[in-house]
Specification:
By secondary structure, this protein is mainly beta. It has 2 domains: 282 residues, TolB, C-terminal domain (Neuraminidase); 128 residues, TolB, N-terminal domain (Rossmann fold), CATH 3.40.50. It is built from 4 helices and 31 strands. Strands 2, 3, 4, 5, 6 and 7 form a 6-stranded mixed β-sheet that branches. It has a 5-stranded antiparallel β-sheet with strand order 1-30-29-28-27, covered by helices on one side. The chain has a 4-stranded antiparallel β-sheet with strand order 10-9-8-31, with no helix packed on it. Helix 2 crosses helix 4. The longest helix has 17 residues.
Amino acid sequence: MVRWIAVLLLSASAAVHAELTIEITGGGENAIPIAVAPFKASGVTVPEDVAAIISADLYRSGRFRPTDPSAQPELPTGPTGVNFPLWRSAGIQNLVVGEVAPSGTGYAIRFYLFDAFRGEQLTAETVTAAAKDLRFAAHSVADLIYERLTGQRGAFATRIAYVSSTRGADGKESVALNIADSDGHNTVGIARSAEPLMSPAWSPDASRLAYVSFEGGQPAIYVQEIATGKRERITAFPGINGAPAWSPDGTRLAVTLSKGRNPDIYVVDVASRAVRQLTTHRAIDTEPAWSPDGQHIVFTSDRGGRPQIYRMPAAGGPEQRITFEGTENTRASYSPDGKSLTMVTRLDGRFQIGLLDLETRGLQILSAGSLDESPGFAPNGAMIIYASSEGGRGVLNSVAVDGGVQTRLASQGEDVREPAWSPFLNRRF
């Protein structure tokens, strides 16, 4: 309980300008074998290894097992002359070849996807990008490959938000709210403070972030436009202003306020600032999250003695406890299809990331740490991002929903926490 309240009131930390880099920590044995051959550079110096970016994306999805280029039977530079029997004998099911060529002041990525077993071309497409967006274009290629082979939209060309903290030579802490590509590269700081920042939440159109700032010594909830940096203070009541969560239509925030002395769940209209109280229990009610259809809100409450997950109609009404396995369950959020919840589950004294099937009520443990927190789904529901602790500092991890592949977004020695995965993007920031 002490840890949970501390997280509610004080958590914040992570890396100011640091790049996050992917580190594979386990899994992938049952994934589909695929090869992404090194892409040919045609008349241009390419600053990024496009094939490596695509391979890493496909791997961390948990659905594919890319081969190392050094183990590939040949290195084709184009779609003609591919020796499919060689790839079949190597056990490769799918093959990607491609090239990067100049396009205006940027690049054009041309790729070909093959069924190596059948010797058939499945697709051939071109993705163009400005020079600064080459990595993002590579993520878009990975999305196209993922969708063609699985039938599910890829989520690599998306963004994450997270909080970071560094300590200067004078011992003072600097806290930043950052956004980055889904693999942790191309980090941009959008807010900085000497006081805690916490609980970033993406608007449904990915154009804004809601978050909590302790500037001035008191918590307040802000909404900030990504593109312009313009921000508005939404709530600043005495006491707790925390845990903002956007409604699916982007017009309201579910929040935790203690304006009535006790922490309860409220809904705030972002435009009018009108506030409506949903819970009135004497317990601590916090960490609200909307169902994808906007009909329900789940939240954390200790009304049963220890923190557990409850659900109620978004319009108000009776609350129902929905978690019973584990000593504590906190920080729940819905999968994009509304069929499951991810949450922090305490089992045998360890705080780990759980996946709860809302129909069967079966609980699957996805992480292997002991202080894991802040889970959230990728917009396609195939992966979950979360924070953990290693060597006394915060790190970010992702895990495939089947638990088969775990990756770490490792910072350059900074403390990183409070990750949030963006919705699908319609444009590049």
